[in-house]
């Protein structure tokens, strides 16, 4: 694939992920489902689609499995799967609690910052002056976003807290994937995503049943159509395009392009759902996203100065990541 096509794939994937929150909000309105039940159905549907794709690819290319100790594999599958489950469920909780636009911006803005800080504190990765300034700017943007909208309909504390929980869970997934890769125990992104969806489906089933597993019959056709879109476009299609684009596009470029996700989410929320964004919310969003883009550039420059050219990729739960590179945006 050419670089141009890779960029197009990542761009379409980011735009697709940006519609996930709005779709979830519409499902909440029409179905009566809660965030946990919707996450269960999304992961279960995604698991079925990924299994079908895997079966198709296995028939065409054959399978090559890497041997891994059973205990190590079980720990990897459980830790990654549970963290990814919390990430997605908490994101839908943020959407339900504080709206699509703000919930997405908080989650997607805080995630790279928490990964950068966690990499510095837990793995000794250097931020550098530029990276430190970018992190401080991102934290300032988050503060303006949440404090400026406090007490209004734009930002609600519980929804904001769910967004931060989602970002923290994503940081766990990413940092754990980096750690495994450093020790030569990483696995391919497709397999990790598939097993994570399996863990999420099993672990969420009792919680979803307690919350209310089945949508109400009124408007069932609309609900099923929205859920089919959620499983296919922001999940299966966007995953496929994202993985394809990663083969030719640099990790930093991917990080910056995927800032299109919260922008798309905000545009859809305002235009389609009628959400209103206050001036402080808009200012905080602009500062936050700008700082995340600066963080990606700063980390790339730091990596270029300290890492040999063409470092070995470290497969992670959402696509290959280079060591000391900025995190690739989470799969929505």
Automatic annotation (TrEMBL):
Entry keyword set: Membrane, Transmembrane, Transmembrane helix
Keyword Transmembrane helix on entry: yes
Designated name of the protein: EamA family transporter
UniProt lineage: Bacteria, Bacillati, Actinomycetota, Actinomycetes, Kitasatosporales
Family: Belongs to the EamA transporter family.
Transmembrane segments: 40-57, 77-95, 101-122, 129-152, 158-177, 189-214, 226-247, 254-273, 279-298
Gene Ontology cellular-component annotations: membrane
The keyword Protein biosynthesis appears for this protein: no
Region (Disordered): 302-332
Localization annotation: Membrane
